[in-house]
Amino acid sequence: MGGGRGTRLFPLTSERCKPAVPLAGKYRLVDIPISNCLNSGLNQIYVLTQFNTASLHRHIQESYKFDPFGGGFVDILSAEQTASGDTWYQGTADAVRQNLHHLECNDEDYVVVLSGDQLYQMDFQRLIQQHLKTEADVTIAAKAMKTSEVIGLGLMRVEDDLSISEFVEKPTDPQIIEGLALSDAVVGQMKDHDAKANYVLANMGIYVFSGKQLRESLANDYRDFGKEVIPEMLKTKKLKGYVFEGYWEDIGTVRSFFEANLDLTNDVPLFNFFDSNNPVYTRARYLPASKLNNAKIDRAVLAGGAILVEAHVSRSVIGIRSMIRRGARLENVVMMGADYFETDEDRAGNLAKGIPNMGIGHNTVIRNAIVDKNARIGRDVVLDPAGKEDGFEQGDVSVVDGVLVVRRSGVIPDGTVI
Questions:
Q1: How far is CA 161 from CA 174, 175, 201, in A?
Q2: For residue 326, is it within any domain?
Q3: pLDDT value for 242
Q4: For position 386, which CATH number holds?
Q5: What local confidence, expressed as pLDDT, does residue 5 receive?
Q6: 257, 274, 277, 317: which could form a disulfide with 301 (CB 3.0–4.6 Å)?
Q7: Residue 285 placed within a domain
Q8: Which range is most confident: 87-96, 125-134, 191-200?
Q9: Cβ–Cβ contacts within 10 Å for residue 229, how many?
Q10: Number of folded domains in the chain?
Q11: Which is more confidently placed, 382 or 87?
């Protein structure tokens, strides 16, 4: 599912959909669910898209190519006008409903529905095996979380046999949340838990249906799985919860995106990109190795093709083809890099027009910020959200969730201080 507007990630989603947002220097968010599928032996994948899809389509087409013998594919299904309807997707369930004719699944086939913008590693075979073993009509993957951490998430009550007995979409009343707390028997089966805390299962937006149950569940006008389809099925169907205990982050806000990226600079990050048994796939770019000339690096992730000259980078993620020039200083920065290298002719032309070259200029200081792709930040610039309220905007700079964001292809003139 990659069709949402991603309004809470704006301005990162002003020119791209949320699954296409760059992640960890060289990936896109959509690479995570696709890689989970491939690592789980699932290679017939449909990506449902709707808003600002050009960069997502290009990335998928250039990244996921299969040989003709394995039957694998990653197909893009965009919202389209048909003889039976001409509306855009009205929600997650409506998006799947409009594409059922493309899936061509039989009653006995199984469909796994995923979100396109979450950070986690999951073996979907275990999820499917539990679904088969329990003979469930629908299995819902859920993350066990403390009751104090689940505001804004769909929650469910499960019995000791993991049968779902209640499902509440994004409750805000603390009493309702506490009332959905897991039993001691279920909590006791969890590997890592705080004995003094109450836990509840949060819906991860990951569902397993048979082809038959999927069609039956969508034979109505319901728009959303979490708000309508699942609560309605709960009245007559057998629903089971699958308790997932690994790291999971719903990249729903600028702050969560920022912190998830910076966590990757830790000695042992919560998400492991170095697991050889579960590689994260992405586009092969054939970039040169990064080059550091007298640069000082303290806890950083560097993607291919970056050039740092006498710069100081601390707790930052530096994306592909990033240019950081002499004397620049970055602290807590997610820099997405660039789509291409500028030529000498390009740089000379920029100089003649008074436009900064791509990347970060001499003696510039940036703190607690996200620098989107192809940004041009001049020399002697200072960018820091300290003292600025959310909603602040100046040129191509805004402050969201306490994070300063330089827009994609933004231009920050020499000497700017924010």
A1: 25, 24, 14
A2: yes
A3: 93
A4: 2.160.10.10
A5: 66
A6: 317
A7: no
A8: 125-134
A9: 25
A10: 1
A11: 382
Q: How confident is the model at residue 81 (pLDDT cuts 50, 70, 90)?
A: low
Give the residue ranges of DSSP H helices in 181-275: 184-188, 211-217, 230-233, 254-263
Question: Which two structure tokens, joined as six digits, stand for 82?
Answer: 């048909």
Better pLDDT: 84 or 77: 77
Residue pair 262/271 in contact by the 8 Å Cβ criterion = no
Selected residue with higher pLDDT from 153 and 217: 217
Q: Which two tokens stand for residue 36?
A: 């989970």
- Residues in CB range of 283: below 8 A, 6 or more apart: 59, 62, 63
Q: What ranges make up the beta strands (E) of 325-377?
A: 329-335, 359-360, 365-371, 376-377
- Residue 370: domain span: 291-412
Output the CA–CA distances (angstroms, integers) from residue 127 to 118, 137, 240, in the order listed.
Answer: 17, 13, 11
Examine residue 376 and state whether it is found in any structural domain, yes or no. Answer: yes
Contact of 258 with 403, CB cutoff 8 Å: yes
Whether residue 63 lies inside any domain: the answer is no
What percent helix, strand, coil does the chain show, rounded to 5? 25, 30, 50
